[in-house]
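Interim report, section 4.2 (structural modelling).
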Amino acid sequence: MSEANAISNNTPMIELKRLNKWYGDFHVLRDIDLTVKRGERIVICGPSGSGKSTMIRCINHLEEHQQGEIVVGGIQMTRDIKRIEQIRRNVGMVFQHFNLFPHLTVLENCCLSPIWVQKKPRREAEKTAMEYLERVKIANQARKYPGQLSGGQQQRVAIARSLCMSPEVMLFDEPTSALDPEMIKEVLDVMVELAQEGMTMLCVTHEMGFAKTVADRVIFMDEGQIIEENAPHEFFNNPRSLRTQTFLSQILGH
Amino acid sequence: MTAFREQMIAQRQPPDQRRGVIGWLRTNLFAGPINSIISLIVIAIAIRLLWPVIDWAFIEADWVGNSREACTSDGACWVFISARWNQIVYGFYPEALRWRVDIVFAIFAALIAWLIVPKLPAKKSVGIFALIGFPIVSWILLLGGMFGLDHVPTRLWGGLMLTLTIAAVGIVGSLPIGVLLALGRRSKMPLVKGVCVVFIEFWRGVPLITVLFMASVMLPLFVPAQMEFDKLLRALIGIMLFWSAYMAEVVRGGLQAIPKGQSEAGAALGLGYWQRMGLIVLPQALKLVIPGIVNTFISLFKDTSLVLIIGLFDVLAIIQAGLTDSDWLGFAIEGYVFAALIFWVFCFSMSRYSQYIENRLNTGHK
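Predicted structure of the assembly:
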């Protein structure tokens, strides 16, 4: 944190330089170069298997890259676990399947990391957690277990849980893909609100409406490479590469 | 055809599904002629088979007396048990010092009651005392030789107190070691993983009897003569390591059932490995394998009677020894039935408690 804050606001929040990753012989990420400014909101889309999830999972080292450089908030990623954990404290992540801890209540889910990682007193952690739960409009369910909530509610709790660590970056890995259609909006509303407050966000999603409303940049990936990146208006109206055009016609065509 | 509804149907009470004893009998045992006949036959067979047992154990049995002369009827003679009661409970523990065993029993019972009854407070501190303080207190009280207490060598220990000592040490020791082994076996570090795999496969591959023999006969050959380990201590260590290997595999089954996303979510929140395991993965994994863990505890409890082959007199061995007493020849059935009953009471209690715990820990996810 302190190291990150010491760096001026002009330095990029995230830098990926010539990032390469293989699963065995399979080349999943190929020469990824990406710079994300502070407060920038980026939507990443692409067909399944294109490496978009893998890429954002490299940013908090849930996946290990083999070549290239990752710098998050001025901290260079190495294999050193202390440094990885330092980066993770500053980067929130929301998963497709929520990954709430089913044996803990909603409130305990939110307090776990502040108490054990940031060493906050329980009462203070609970107060902060309730504020964030309030913001995602689920404070009245704080004493329930995740299994008693709907998918949309669970995902909002997951967002609140990440925010409790006051991260500077939020990574969203297909946050609405596992939701019933009528619950997608409640999650997207929370994400839009977060974007408007100036959070640096990287969202892997197929919600093109969300991309059009909040994204500063849309990135299209295919076969482990960044094929095209552009402002949403340009991206949707004048896609340059053939792959992007095909992809867009497939997801917007029906 | 089109249909629409503007007025919603109001909620109604469900139909009354309560039934009395008669209703239950009618639906479950006497639902039709064939059903009724089968029920009657089964009940008749059950009574026919069980009656002699009940007759022998209760109705025709002798309950009071203090010598063989009291055994006059055709049924069981429980006088055999009551006459040998002290030995069954304390083994050869000196009579004047048995109050020390009684205190340990009393603390043990109180701790279990405290931990089982949900309403009592301070479960955490009581639990920590049960795991750390209680063994030390018991060790001092039972063994003596310090604080002015007379030393009672472990070869005098026996009966129920020995069985419970071995079972308690085995249970309390094998679970944490088993958890560490299970985590180690899933480790990405090849050396840690290798050591754990070899350890687990070694102990699972040898019979407990061999382990006990090794501990009591072979081990002294390998260590310098002046180093003397207590025989009971050697058996305890052997039993603990043996069962920890089984426990490790049970726990590993639970660990494998926890989705990778759980640990990843913990990692993304900045939690370290031990925090992720201790706060997220293990609580869920252990809850999942409670039946397997308790199953192992029950096996362990019953297998404590194997220490008989290295000359330790557990509850079964002491009863068996009593059978050879020339005053009491011919009471083998009573002796073995009683031994079985003791084991059954403890094992059944563990089984019921595990079911209760499972229900209590249920938080509504599958």
